[in-house]
Write a structure and sequence with these properties.
alpha+beta, Jelly Rolls, Arc Repressor Mutant, subunit A, three-stranded antiparallel beta sheet, 10 helices
């Protein structure tokens, strides 16, 4: 009789060396604004309302369900609207760097959206923890959340590929946007916008404009010289707006571009 056991072994060299130091629900706006450098890593989960992370003189919007990774000795603070709150787990240890490398977390890839489902788990775990088990509870939540980031990282690749596929099929539709794609795929538009920019380095609107202008250039190079028709075929309803975008992307307006093409022929 075959065994139904499922065996998955944890590599011994990464099975320890992760040490949570505190697990906190932060509701005090004065404490949030404390900009003292922290000598530990911090995983923060926004649990209520919207706010801002001020880090390295830059402001980052954040809202419920966002996870933010903060690094050793960074100086930062939070500001939020009334009722804004977040939870965080501070931690240190050699395994921290291994986890960051595994999930592609660094100073330019530290914010992750769409984790509202983790809020009840974090809340319940903290409320049930005692001084006898807080180390186990906080480490368990920390590792579980990392594991969700891993699945999210894979899922974000799939979503990005779907966004690009839809764009290549429907770019000529003037109504195409990240919102329409989000509705089509059943995702939150803010989430798709975030993962697309994180993966490609530019926002979706800029990506779509670049794609449309490249297509317009191909039409001009294949002999189509009606700016209005090229604009419509490329997904622009307004030829004047098309001309403005075209000039911004190529350095010259469509008329000049067409004339230069004829000179080369």
């Amino acid at each position: 009789m075959k065994s139904k056991n499922i065996c998955k072994f944890v590599p011994a060299d990464i099975a320890s060396q992760l040490m949570p130091t505190q697990f906190i629900l932060e509701t005090d706006s004065e404490a949030m604004r404390n900009a003292t450098p922290k000598p530990v890593y911090r995983m923060a989960l926004i649990t209520n309302h919207s706010g801002k992370l001020i880090l390295n003189n830059r402001s980052y919007r954040c809202s419920a369900g966002d996870i933010i990774m903060l690094f050793e000795n960074e100086t930062y603070f939070f500001e939020g609207e009334a009722g804004f709150q977040y939870m965080y787990i501070d931690f240190k240890g050699l395994r921290s760097n291994e986890l960051f490398r595994r999930f592609g977390i660094n100073e330019s890839n530290r914010m992750f959206s769409g984790f509202e489902g983790l809020i009840p788990l974090w809340m319940e775990s903290l409320s049930r923890a005692s001084k006898e088990n807080i180390d186990l509870v906080s480490e368990s939540i920390l590792l579980y959340t990392f594991s969700k980031l891993n699945s999210e990282y894979t899922k974000s690749d799939d979503c990005t590929n779907k966004i690009i596929e839809i764009t290549e099929q429907d770019f000529s539709d003037p109504q195409l946007s990240i919102s329409s794609i989000a509705e089509q795929l059943g995702y939150n538009a803010k989430y798709l916008s975030h993962i697309f920019k994180r993966k490609n380095g530019i926002g979706y609107t800029e990506y779509l404009q670049n794609f449309r202008i490249k297509y317009a250039i191909s039409l001009f190079e294949n002999g189509l010289d009606s700016i209005k028709n090229v604009a419509l075929l490329s997904g622009f309803t307004d030829p004047l707006y098309f001309s403005t975008v075209f000039k911004n992307k190529t350095g010259s307006p469509p008329k000049t571009y067409i004339k230069n093409l004829f000179k080369k022929q």
